[in-house]
Design goal:
The complex is a heterodimer of chains A (193) and B (233). Chain A is built from nine helices and no strands. Chain A is an all-alpha fold and 193 residues long. Chain A has a single domain, classed as Up-down Bundle (Butyryl-CoA Dehydrogenase, subunit A, domain 3). With 233 residues, chain B is of the alpha+beta class. Chain B has five helices and nine strands. In chain B, strands 1, 2, 3, 4, 5, 6, 7, 8 and 9 form a nine-stranded antiparallel sheet that branches. In chain B, strand 1 and strand 2 form a beta hairpin. Chain B is globular, with a radius of gyration of 22 Å. Classes of the chains: A mainly alpha (193), B alpha+beta (233). At the A-B interface, helix 2, helix 3, helix 4, helix 6 and helix 7 of A face helix 1 and helix 2 of B.
């Protein structure tokens, strides 16, 4: 099964040359880090929420991610796998570190109702909330590695190749992991319908 | 509930489900932390450019201090590692004598960090800590930072050095307060890794200390007998 390309980079952030240029500028002048933060804040926050951090924890971990990224910006090497994967690897490590201190839980279904998009009608919002609640309940049943891969893909907006660099697997193994995760999820949705 | 499980529709639904907005309050928190981090990093680099107070690599510096102390016989029998190390270094002694005794220990990942003393002025928060490995290996503090009561991140910049004495090690570090900010206690010291004394391996962990110290007049290198002036306004 081929994963559809339209979701490969849902945040439309796969502008590696621009990120690399901004990162080089930030290595010379920390003030130049601001545009990198603006470009990637949403994907980092969404990834952390998708992994199970609550609002407060996600804000703390997102802030920590960017603090660490800035303090280690000299270690970023342009021309590699890209700034987005590098940043999400930091976020992932921060989440794992935090998980050692306190057990994280899947995104709570009680928190889902407030997650409406601006401008949505009440009816659309209710449908979207119901759909989100249902899908997230299915995702929550997946093994951690599958949840992580899906969060990197659909919340972090990474491609299979980029996810591979974050989780330390080959691109082929990552594609299989994503395919298996989606197949499991679809099967669960059919059984749950 | 039913869902179209064709590939594209299913993935689109997943994308929608993970399109989680950032609440304004959370956004403000993250923005502020990143702004402070940028200001801190800018100030840290500026201070580095202006010239390090302690130009020698930290480990070499205090290692030298320890050696000098041993050679000149100024190491006092008994007491903590720091009382021995600092005793042989007038520059360190100036900070040591005016710092507040904290005396807290935290253990994680097989390492115990002992926060001996701390001090703060408008330019720095000084922390004096030692590391002891359960394995007995000589170790140093790796990554650390101080956060003040307002959430300002104060990063280490002017480390006075580390040294190894009888299998333990210690560090005296001046964390740079970002320009234009007055640090306020209570402070939190977060250590997130320790390294072997040679620095070749780094072990992550969490050692967190909370302490409060008065804001004193600036610390400057000077004779050990420097008079402690009252707090600056």
């Amino acid at each position: 099964m081929e994963l559809s390309q339209q979701i490969a980079s849902p945040l439309d952030l796969a502008d590696t040359p621009l990120d690399d240029r901004l990162a080089l500028e930030a290595q010379a002048d920390p003030k130049a880090f601001a545009p990198l933060y603006e470009r990637h804040m949403l994907r980092v926050y969404r990834y952390l929420r998708a992994r199970g951090a609550n609002e407060d924890d996600a804000a703390e971990l997102a802030a920590l991610t960017f603090e660490r990224a800035l303090s280690h910006i000299d270690r970023y090497r342009p021309g590699g796998s890209g700034f987005g994967p590098w940043l999400l690897r930091i976020a992932r490590n921060a989440f794992i570190d935090a998980g050692r201190r306190q057990r994280n839980r899947p995104l709570g279904l009680d928190e889902v109702s407030g997650l409406t998009a601006p401008g949505q009608s009440p009816e659309d919002a209710a449908i979207a909330t119901e759909e989100r609640r249902w899908i997230l309940s299915l995702v929550a049943r997946l093994p951690d590695i599958q949840r992580d891969a899906l969060a990197l893909r659909f919340a972090g907006g990474l491609s299979s190749r980029e996810i591979a660099t974050v989780i330390g697997k080959s691109e082929a193994a990552t594609k299989k992991l994503l395919t298996r995760s989606l197949a499991t999820l679809k099967e669960a949705s059919r059984n749950d319908a | 509930m039913t869902l179209d499980t064709s590939d594209s529709n299913f993935e689109a639904a997943l994308g929608r489900s993970f399109s989680i907005p950032v609440p304004l309050g959370s956004r403000d928190v993250i923005d502020r932390r990143v702004e402070v981090a940028i200001a801190s990093e800018t100030a840290r680099r500026a201070s580095r450019i202006r010239g390090r107070r302690f130009p020698m690599p930290a480990r070499l510096l205090l290692g030298g201090v320890a050696a000098a102390a041993l050679l000149t016989g100024t190491v006092v029998a008994g007491g903590t590692i720091f009382s021995q190390l600092i005793g042989g270094a007038p520059l360190m002694e100036n900070v040591w004598d005016r710092a507040t005794e904290i005396n807290q220990s935290r253990t994680d990942a097989g390492y115990t960090i002992h926060l001996e003393r701390a001090a703060a002025d408008r330019e720095h928060v000084w922390v004096i800590a030692s590391v002891t490995a359960a394995s007995g290996a000589a170790s140093d503090i790796g990554r650390m930072r101080v956060i003040d009561a307002n959430g300002v991140v104060i990063r280490p910049g002017t480390c006075a050095g580390t040294g190894d004495v009888r299998g333990a090690s210690a560090v005296l570090c001046g964390c740079n307060v970002p320009a234009g900010i007055t640090p306020r206690g209570p402070f939190t010291l977060e250590v997130t890794s320790v390294t072997t004394a040679a620095g070749e391996t780094e072990t992550p962990g969490h050692w967190t200390f909370t302490f409060d110290v008065p804001l004193t007049s600036p610390f400057h290198p000077g004779p050990a007998t420097a008079t402690v002036r009252p707090d600056v306004p």
